[in-house]
Amino acid sequence: MTEHTKTDGLPGMDLPVLPEASPLGMGKAPVRNERMSSAKVECNACPVLCQISEGRSGACDRYANRAGVLVRVDPVVLLRRELQSESPALVPFAREGAEAPAESAPPARDWDGDLLLADQVFVTGIGASTTYPDYKPAPFIVASKAQGVDMVTVVTEGIFSYCSVKVKIDTDRFLGSEQANVRYKGEVVGHVTTAEYGSQMLSLGGVHHLTGGSKKEGRMTLELMQNLCNKQAAECTIDGGSSLVIQAGKAPIVNGVEEQRMRVGCGSATVGIFARQLLGLADEVVVVDDHITGVLTEHQAGRCLAMPPSGIQMRGRKSTPGRYFQVANPGSGWGGTDIADPLAIIEGWEPGVAKPGLRLLMTSTTGEQAQWFVLDDNLQPVEQPIPPEVQKVVDRIGENCEPSLCTVLFLGGAGGSLRAGVTENPVLLTRAIKQALVNVTCGGAPAYVWPGGGITVMVDVTRMPDNSFGTVPTPAIIAPIEFSMRLADYAALGGHMEHVMTLEQALSRGAWQDDGAPTAREWRRPEAVNAWPLGQPPLLG
Ligand code: SF4
After folding, report:
1. Is 459 domain-assigned?
2. pLDDT band, residue 8 (cuts 50/70/90)
3. Residue 105 — very low, low, confident or very high, per pLDDT cuts 50/70/90?
4. Which of 310, 357, 396, 466 has the highest count of CB atoms within 10 angstroms of its CB?
């Protein structure tokens, strides 16, 4: 067998820890990978152990063999805090050779590696490299100061075998029954889960689809998860339901129709919210909703306003006065039902109570559908144009709807071996996180850590830099993760103190570097709403 290098470019425990610093973006990192006589190098950054020929990249396209040196091909991503204010807005560095910022961008400031500014820079796990096999310290363990306190951030790219995405789709339309399979390119990659208020929810990915089925199922699951986490559009179908295009931060497209509005509330809530505005304009109002259809005169809101009963008799199952379940089947019609004619949910009118001339407004929960009827002498509803004053209230319902969006949350289990890159005693990291001593971020975005055992993190991918996620063919998702804490707490939990480095040292080294390639890229999100990852109250309180 040909002899290969066996390195991912990270220092082993027995290798020099802190290479000589070099000026940011100017010098070359010390080449720590052994140059081999063979044209191949072996990457051991994941269990696949690719043997990579010169000029080629490995199976994940994240590592490559350049002149016999294994390099991480993507630049590491840095976040930079806007200095003029406490705002967490992120701005790009102006570095030699960097592209000029767009005209709309705030002016970039020159930065020559001045360590006085170093604490305004946050090294993310994006492009940082991994620690596989996991006895290695994390690729970056960066010291800094926050509000005068010595801090440290442990930065890595996690290999997540246990991970999924939870997708919230703001629509009332029927996407599929709960537990129905969701397919991507024909493969089952997840399922419909519980509907939430105004939204349908999907659970996609997960270890069983990644590794428990066929190879193709695993590949498709991985591809879908990577696309969605990287904010790209993906088309799925639901067994017995709809086809839809999902993209984080964008409107869902259901059966080819782009969703516009997220409902103001359920039918009962809509009746309650707008009851006073409709008083005197209509004798009865029905808000059609697949979940709870509201009937104003029966509803407590109508009673409180002393509205007389209209005599309307509804289909469906009465829950409480003025609130009806199951008036129709789920679908893409009015209020997430399958009806196109709203009168289909009215059983009849009670003689002696209902009167000719009664004015009836029927609307959906978004106001996108609305019709106005007047009862004739036979108590039959006759459609008429909506009076302008009633149309104003219908418009108000629409105005109160938020834009319909897809939300994609990445959910991953970080309680496994990657903890060894942080500490020699992994349970201490888990405990420190639960004690709010450690701020966990993913690509600088705040991560919610689930209570209970392990380190199960959840993060909104739209708060993360573009293309934060990668894959390896094991199959698993690669996601950035950073653990920030006081330096003293890091020492107390058995951290790799001998590997703590300054920002300057971090920037001068790393497996991602290679001749001529950028050493770092900066991410700017003009509307950034993320708190600065360092010095959050739980850390300093
Ligand atoms: S798949 Fe990527 S990380 Fe894994 S061994 Fe191959 S090149 Fe390295």
Report:
1. yes
2. very low
3. very low
4. 310
Centre of ligand 1 from the C-alpha of residue 100, in Å: 33
Q: Is the CB of 43 under 6 A from ligand 1?
A: yes
Q: For residue 291, what pLDDT is reported?
A: 92
Atom number in ligand 1 closest to CA 52:
7
For 34-89, what is each residue's pLDDT tens digit? 444 468 999 989 999 999 999 999 999 999 998 888 888 888 888 877 655 444 33
Q: What pTM did the predictor assign?
A: 0.84
Q: Is the CB of 48 under 6 A from ligand 1?
A: yes
63 lines ligand 1 (CB under 6 A): yes
Q: Which domain holds residue 475?
A: 77-162+406-528
Per residue in 56-71, pLDDT (tens digit) is: 999 999 999 988 888 8
Report, as an integer, the average pLDDT of 340-364.
97
Look at residues 230, 258, 286 and tell me which one is the last residue of a structural domain.
Answer: 258
C-alpha 522/C-alpha 510 separation (Å) is 16
Contacts of 211 (CB under 8 A, 6+ apart): 161, 218, 475
Tell me, yes or no, whether 288 lies in a domain. yes
- 271 and 391 in a single domain? The answer is yes
Say if residue 386 is in the same domain as residue 435.
no
Buried b (16+ CB within 10 A) or exposed e, 51-78: bbeeeebbbbebbbbbebbbbbbbbbbb
Predicted pLDDT of residue 121: 83
Which ligand 1 atom sits nearest the alpha carbon of residue 473? 1
Measured from the Cα of 42, ligand 1's closest atom is: 5
Contact 46 CB / ligand 1 (< 6 Å) = yes
521 found inside a domain: yes
Q: Within this chain, do residues 204 and 315 fall inside the same structural domain, yes or no?
A: no
Of 33 and 440, the one with more pLDDT = 440
Which of residues 378, 399, 420 is at a domain's end?
399
Could you tell me if 374 and 360 are in contact, meaning their C-beta atoms sit under 8 angstroms apart?
Answer: yes
- Is the CB of 59 inside a 6 Å radius of any atom of ligand 1? yes
**Whether 275 and 250 share a structural domain:** no
Q: Is the pLDDT of residue 25 over 60?
A: no
* Residue pLDDT, tens place only, 273-289: 999 999 999 999 999 99
Q: Is residue 51 part of a domain?
A: no
Provide the token pair at 450. Answer: 């689930």
DSSP 155: E
CA of 124 to the centre of ligand 1 (A): 20
Q: Is 64 in the pocket of ligand 1 (CB under 6 A)?
A: no
Q: How far is the CA of 471 from the centre of ligand 1 (A)?
A: 9
49 CA: nearest ligand 1 atom: 5
Q: What is the mean pLDDT of residues 430-449?
A: 94
Q: Are residues 354 and 463 in the same domain?
A: no
